[in-house]
Design brief:
mainly alpha; Hydantoin permease; 19 helices; globular
Length: 459
Amino acid sequence: MDKTRDNWGSKIAFILAASGSAIGLGNIWRFPTAAYRNGGAAFVWIYILIVIFIGFIVMVGEISMGRNVQRNPVGVYKKLAPRSLWTLVGYFGILTAWGVLSYYSVVAGWTIRYIFTSASGTFMKHLSEAEITNIFVSMVASPSQSIFWHFIFMLTTVGMVIGGVKKGIERWSKILMPMLFLIMFLLVLRAVTLEGAGAGLMKYLKADWSKVTGGTFIAALGQAIFSLSLGVGTMMTYGSYMRREENIVRSAGFVCFFDTMVAFMAGLAIFPVIFIMPGIEPEVGAKLIFIVLPRLFSEIPMGTIFGAAFFVLLFLAAVTSSISLLEVPVAYFVDERGWSRKKATLICGTIAFFAGILSALSVGAVGWLSHITDIGTRAMGFLDLADLFIGQYSMTFGAMMIALFVGWRWGTAALVQELSHGSNPGMAKKLIAFLIKYFCPLILIGLILYFILNPNAFA
């Protein structure tokens, strides 16, 4: 162990930083729509069970590996499985985190632009759907605008990571996460007190089990993996900064709780707003966030404040996730290559920025990047394909490999021993060991096979 390596300054620091990593755009623009399409509260209950028995378990394993070795993903596999192909899984995780960051920054950049657009009162002019659509299209179709806001967001992320674990990530997490929770609470409070909000709340909180299919479980599992930031090395890297006396099980439990709570609250904030206007259907992704909701903000009291606060919330969720994504390759170059943190952060951020330009240009600015292929009935551009293959398939594969490694290569005995630091061994640790050795790999292998047989599952 490198004795000069940074550690979190407190237990709450890890929980806030890891929760920030987990809480991202997926909680806000994926979860509510998935719930709407899959039986409302029925989907919520299924999702919670998957988080408890799969997401939480894999997270505990990933954090344990990082704390045991106190290195980046490549260093972890080198130490726990020396001179083996498992090291490639570490490299795969780093590249996945880097790849997700490259296109994630593009979408997150849009949220910065929309903070100013909303705060200026643009959406309070009772614009038509076509006019609001044109505002979004004109932004993403402009190469200069797309790249500029992508640059601003990446610069923000680099500025927060360059300060290190305590003076950078920890300090900003302690500022940003309370702000995120406060804004989310205020948005929910405003949404549920809107006239006619009851229809949306009923649609969300009532379980319609008739809409539950096999696809519901697939959607919930995919959402959990992406939302909890599993399989890319973020939790392993953050875990490597944990002290021995900290309780991994409890910390991971808090992270899963906060992440799920924000996703649930996002539904409470969005459903009432959606259902106060007849004929509006929740869309997924950018159309919901940048077209449907701004149209609704223009029709509700205090819409300017509500809309601006909503996009501030999106920005906070995005930046706390991007910090952890950038930290994965940065930790690799600091640990394994001996680079200074400043050099590693600047170079890794620059590479992610330039890689993200293709995604920035693929939402209307450059025709051939906007429509590369069709998967199912959906036209897929470069950003769509990056999200599908890097953000969904690669993360699922990474989560599966972590479960297999902890359960069968590193061993459940080593896992239980690591979990015993900071807490007394008990039945909970034995249950975690059983689930990560048998249950989680089986389910995740099944999900990978489903992807292979149904390549358009998340398209």
